[in-house]
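dude i think i finally got it to work??
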Amino acid sequence: MTDEIELTPTSYIVLGLLSMFGEATPYDLKGMGSASIGQFWTLPHSQIYAEPARLARAGYLSETQEQGGRRRKRYSLAGRGRQAFDDWLGVLTPEPYLLRDVALLKLFFGANVHELAEVQLETHRQKLAEYTALGEMDPGTGPRGPWLALDLGLKHERATVGFWEQHARAGKQKLPARARRSSRARD
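look at this
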């Protein structure tokens, strides 16, 4: 008998990762998630560790345990899990994405836009460089979903860098001439 449970975003993350990578331990899932969807989705480690056992009890995953060594539990998709994941993929999602950005929150509440822009430019330029390097590794074959998500991430980072560059320039233009000269010397 299987438990009836409500599937959550974490449930679908586990099902999705296992659909892409096959069998995995919760530790493996944490690493896979951090390296992939962790770029755009918050992954509470405690939930990633607990979710496979919950899904296995409900019949969505198959569970095996190593006989020797650390006796780790390994999980893979069961038929019910594959069906639930496929059904979830087929449901259109009209909701906009959720943007949770501390810098944007500070900007909203009146932080100094010039100072914030300087720090944010460095952060987003780094992320843009990271995404660009990943994009150059696209083999052009295999599942397109991860590469399409990366493409959207690249576009988002380019727009974000453009926004912060605009406000960094505007802040420098408003400085008195003497402050602009000393600011240029630091650049």
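Confidence is low (pLDDT under 50) at residues 177-183.
im so relieved honestly
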